[in-house]
Amino acid sequence: MKIGIDKIGFFAPNLYVDLKDLAEARGIDPNKFLIGLGQSEMAICPETQDSVSLAANAAYNILTEEDINDIDLLIFATESGVDLSKSGASFIHGLLNLKSNVRSIEMKHACYSATFAVQTAKAHIALNPTKKALVLASDLAIYGLNNSAEPTQGAGAIALLISKNPKLVEIEDDSAFLTTDVLDFWKPIYSDVALVDGHFSNQKYQESFIEVYQAYLEKTNRTINDFKAICLHTPYSKIGYKTLKMITNEDAHPELFNNYQLATTLNRRVGNIYTGALYLSLLSLLERANLKYGDRIGLYSYGSGAVAEFFSVIVSKDYEKHLNKDKNDHMLNNRMKLSIKEYEELLLKKIDGTDITFNQMDKKDNAYFYFKGISNHQRLYAKKHNFE
Ligand code: COA
Which of the pair, 362 or 332, is modelled with greater confidence? Predict the structure, then answer.
């Protein structure tokens, strides 16, 4: 039985920072960000969006009534969850009006958890072929102001509907993975921002790639020539490019490098979305590359801390008929650019537990679901135009 990704939904918040503006404000040559990191813009959340509402919006973009009836597993993968006890999945279950007989859970392992969720969903569908599983990968990548990781921030969510006979890609069975105990990136419970040992995290990302990629090739007896494209976890687009260059070069495999550029087009405009970043790259590739039924795409997932996994998917027949490229491009093209002052003010705002109500239209947030505020220490979400 073929099991894989039937639909991909994407949602980015309506605000962004142009990295040329950020470079100018920080007294840095813009080419460091544009060429050195390979990033051009980063998405920023208004106060009315968080990891829960972003995820609900990404799912809302793809789900039909039929999907809602068939879903019996919901996994919310995030490292920017809103509560240490109540699962974001249960908020989302309510917002999406899913049926009650659904298993739901929130998962965390830095940028790896969405891949664990996808593999778990695949196993679930193997046992329950008439059902569907909804995997939501949603994050706000925030490192704070005036540090070297600042240009690699971002925000957004990916929704993956996993089913049998998938319309987009089939997930193959051969997967190679590893766990190591390293402190390359972490977010202490007392900290509002993630902490990162940037160059060490790059090193672990690349070392782990070589290890799981080689293990995958040995396990499958495949070679690099079996891939039409390779998508990598993309905290910023240059890291994946440099990592691909560890196994080949542009003269030997020009198509792999061309497809890598297409696979990072969305990431360069959204920034890092942590655990959804690999799947944003896959979406970017599917929407832009010239793929054929049966083409194999390699996927490299990396989550600091660290877990890495290399696996592959096979492109489905007529996959291009089931994408929403124009809608996704329209969403990114119609965001509001923040001045650096506005961005800094937004990033420094904190929720301290006192009751607060946000006005969705303050920052022209036009999303279907939004975070309405706090009342009596409870988080409240609402649907657009549902003001009280
Ligand atoms: N024009 C073009 N390129 C330039 C440049 C300029 N004027 N100035 C610098 N660069 C290049 C550098 O040569 C370097 O490229 P290289 O790595 O290919 O040599 C790149 O820009 C980055 O410069 P660097 O000095 O290494 O940046 P940094 O130390 O300020 O920080 C990160 C870079 C990625 C370490 C930092 O942004 C970070 O910590 N990000 C978050 C961590 C992360 O995403 N980790 C990934 C693994 S999950």
Answer: 332
Q: In the structure, which protein residues have their CB atom closer than 6 angstroms to any atom of ligand 1?
A: 29, 31-32, 35-37, 148-149, 152, 196, 198-199, 201-202, 205, 235-236, 239, 242, 302, 304
Hey, what domains does the chain have and what are their CATH numbers?
Answer: 3-169+323-383 (3.40.47.10), 171-317 (3.40.47.10)
**Ligand 1 atom closest to Cα of residue 111:** 48
Tell whether the model's pLDDT for residue 253 goes beyond 60.
yes
Query: Among all chains, which residue has been given the structure tokens 């696979």?
Result: 263
Helix pair 113-127, 277-288: axis angle to 10 deg: 70
Find, among 211, 239, 218, 216, the residue nearest to 313 by Cα.
Answer: 216
Handedness of CA 354, 360, 361, 365 (dihedral sign): positive
Q: Which of 93, 109, 233, 253 is catalytic?
A: 233
Specify burial of residue 307 (Cβ count, 10 A radius: 0-12, 13-18, 19+): buried
- Is the pTM of the predicted complex or chain greater than 0.85? yes
Q: State yes or no: is 170 an active-site residue.
A: no
Distance CA 127, CA 72 (A): 12
Q: Is 93 a catalytic residue?
A: no
pLDDT for 74-85, tens place per residue?
Answer: 999 999 999 999
Partners of residue 303 on adjacent β-strands: 307
Q: How confident is the model at residue 386 (pLDDT cuts 50, 70, 90)?
A: low
d(CA 167, CA 174): 20
pLDDT for the residue 269: 98
Q: Residue 287: phi, psi to the nearest 5?
A: -75, -20
Residues 41, 79, 106, 287: which is the catalytic one? 79
Q: How many CB atoms lie within 10 A of CB 232?
A: 26
CA of 286 relative to ligand 1 center, distance in Å: 28
Output the CA angle 334-233-108, nearest 5 degrees. Answer: 95
